[in-house]
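Intended use. Records like the one below are meant for learning the mapping from a protein sequence to its folded structure. Do not use them to infer anything beyond what is encoded.
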Amino acid sequence: MISDILQPLLVAIFVAANASLLGTFAILKRMALVGDALTHVALPGMALGLIFNFSPFWGALVFLTAATFGIWFLEQYSELSVETLVGIFFSASLAVGVLLTPDTELLEALFGNITGLGWGESLISIAISLFTMILVFSIRRKLALNMLSPELAQSIGINNRKLELVYLLLFALAVALGIRFVGALLMGSLVIIPAAASKNIAHGFKSFLSLAMIFGVISSAMSIFVWKATAFEPGPVFIIVSSAIFIFTLIWRLLRSNRQ
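Structure written out for the chain above:
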């Protein structure tokens, strides 16, 4: 029993912690909806993986990386906002993905199936998640300054364009990893809800990052245990648990405000 649950549990914990960490910066930049829309760009890549029998992760990563470079480039050389560009990529990708994905695999692509991963894919997911978290922590202050005040960041020598590209690529990587957990439709929630819950009660930047990861880990672990006990899919359970945590932290924040 332990061996059956250990693999998906480890993957879920690392993937959720990574996604939650990146979600904090998406909230700082007020691009929560952009992050949600970007996740759907992965669907055509997943569909090609299912059709040609290779890992959907690599297909999703290729499409997300291409979309990230496209959005970054067009933002610099057009008058369109990131929200508009992501909306265009989102709509087209979702339509193509739904058309390409085999009917028998569509549900898995939309809602995820982390329990279907082999140990090879699991170890790769854990290693990439760990690498991404280390990299994010190493540039966290630059990212925060860039997202809170791009002008100030530029004045002290931070290259905002390159930093934004790095963040978008890391975000795309997190999406490619997490999409097997919660699917294309729910991936945005994996990134945003734990971070939003953390923002409700965090007292500073460090606690904001730490609590987001803790909430992501708690929600992911509970989703795997619920799956093992009830056979409910872990992805939707994660969203329900993390939403409950968000509501709890929101009530806590309101009660604390009233006392003051």
